[in-house]
């Protein structure tokens, strides 16, 4: 802001005209237009010294010091400011905000509707039962008859029995229905200890029985602890150290063994219970769980196994239905507010006023009717006020002959 400084100099300090420092300030001001950044700090120091010598006002100093910054930054921000303050741009931004808000509301509503449809349509297709393994059911036999095989008894299998006829969720309905097919899966949660990593393959045997204790189906499947090297176990423990110390995680893994597939449930010979046996007694186990999973078909299969694609399609369908419903609501609201008057009933005499007689008056050709009071006011103004002249009445009077005229004719 060199001109302002020069004016202040001329008014207060005439002797400054011969001062060589003024030429330096002018030269700096001219160079700032080319490249302002190197001269901002030097200009500030020079003007500060100038003020200390000649006692210029602080406003003049600040304006002169930060004018280069303003001239550099403002031209770059000006297009953005003009765009933001433009009414058309603000209208577009408002429309996009409204569109985004409506989209979020429609998506949330569609998601809630699909969730409700999912819970109502899809049956309970999976049931998990806790299994408690028995480690002592053979010990008595070996201790009684073969005490010398006590060490061998440590390697015999562990046993469990699971009742599959218990009603699901404390209801009277059985989990299995007639002609339904299901799978049996056995989950074993074990600690990642050195003893378990040293184990070889072990076998899991399952057998299902009916009410008469007759065997329905059985199978034997292998299981194995997933191998992890010492380095991988060390890195895994190090990465989860915080969660392990706080108890949020445990050093464990789950072994899933698929025992039976595509089992058939018969109402006349239903499944009563199942027995499970693990032939490795020394396997360290946290917990075991038997999962019964129904075989789904059709839409239920897609909703479970292709849940993302199916959910996306249903959410899109529900959003379209919501949009159509909102459009019809808006259209009904619009038709209720604005419509054309086809036929109106005369307020006092009860005669019907034809459509042409109403539309002949441009003032009452189209109008809005919201309440009964407005309708009454319209009819009073149209048919009751004295100022209104009804042409149809004159025509009727002209058409009806006078009584005196009839008497004279007679």
Automatic annotation (TrEMBL):
Keyword terms: Endoplasmic reticulum, Lipid metabolism, Membrane, Transmembrane, Transmembrane helix
Residue stretches spanning the membrane: 97-117, 307-332
Alphabetical GO biological process terms: lipid droplet formation; lipid metabolic process
Translocase among keywords: no
GO CC, one annotated term: endoplasmic reticulum membrane
Membrane topology: Multi-pass membrane protein
Primary location class: endoplasmic reticulum
Subcellular localization: Endoplasmic reticulum membrane
Coiled-coil features, chain-numbered ranges: none
Protein name as annotated: Berardinelli-Seip congenital lipodystrophy 2 (Seipin)
The organism of origin for this protein: Clydaea vesicula
Higher taxonomy: Eukaryota, Fungi, Fungi incertae sedis, Chytridiomycota, Chytridiomycota incertae sedis
């Amino acid at each position: 802001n060199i001109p302002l400084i020069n004016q202040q100099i001329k008014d207060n300090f005439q002797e400054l005209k011969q001062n060589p420092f003024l030429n330096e300030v002018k030269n700096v001001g001219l160079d700032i237009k080319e490249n302002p950044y190197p001269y901002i700090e030097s200009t500030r120091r020079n003007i500060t010294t100038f003020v200390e010598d000649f006692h210029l006002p602080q406003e003049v100093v600040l304006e002169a010091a930060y004018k280069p910054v303003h001239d550099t930054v403002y031209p770059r921000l000006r297009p953005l400011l003009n765009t933001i303050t433009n009414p058309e741009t603000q209208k577009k931004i408002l429309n996009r905000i409204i569109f985004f808000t409506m989209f979020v509301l429609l998506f949330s509503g569609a998601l809630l509707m699909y969730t409700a449809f999912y819970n109502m349509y899809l049956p309970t297709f999976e049931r998990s039962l806790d299994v408690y393994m028995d480690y002592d059911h053979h010990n008595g036999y070996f201790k009684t008859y073969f005490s010398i095989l006590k060490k061998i008894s440590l390697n015999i299998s562990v046993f469990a029995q699971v009742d599959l006829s218990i009603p699901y969720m404390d209801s009277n309905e059985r989990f299995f229905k007639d002609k339904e097919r299901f799978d049996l899966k056995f989950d074993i949660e074990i600690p990642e200890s050195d003893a378990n990593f040293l184990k070889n393959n072990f076998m899991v045997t399952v057998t299902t029985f009916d009410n008469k204790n007759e065997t329905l189906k059985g199978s034997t499947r292998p299981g194995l602890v997933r191998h992890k090297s010492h380095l991988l176990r060390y890195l895994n423990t190090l990465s989860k150290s915080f969660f392990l110390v706080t108890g949020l995680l445990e050093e464990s893994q789950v072994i899933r063994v698929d025992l039976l597939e595509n089992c058939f449930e018969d109402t006349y010979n239903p499944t009563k219970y199942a027995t499970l046996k693990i032939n490795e007694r020394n396997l360290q186990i946290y917990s075991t769980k038997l999962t019964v999973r129904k075989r789904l078909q059709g839409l239920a299969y897609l909703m479970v196994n292709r849940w993302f694609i199916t959910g996306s399609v249903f959410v899109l369908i529900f959003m379209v239905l919501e949009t159509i419903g909102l459009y019809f609501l808006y259209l009904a609201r619009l038709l209720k507010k604005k419509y054309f008057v086809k036929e109106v009933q005369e307020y006092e005499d009860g005669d019907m006023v034809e459509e042409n007689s109403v539309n002949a008056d441009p003032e009452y050709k189209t109008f809005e009717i919201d309440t009964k009071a407005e309708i009454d006011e319209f009819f009073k103004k149209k048919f009751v006020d004295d100022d209104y002249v009804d042409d149809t009445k004159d025509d009727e009077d002209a058409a009806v002959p006078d009584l005196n005229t009839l008497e004279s004719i007679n």
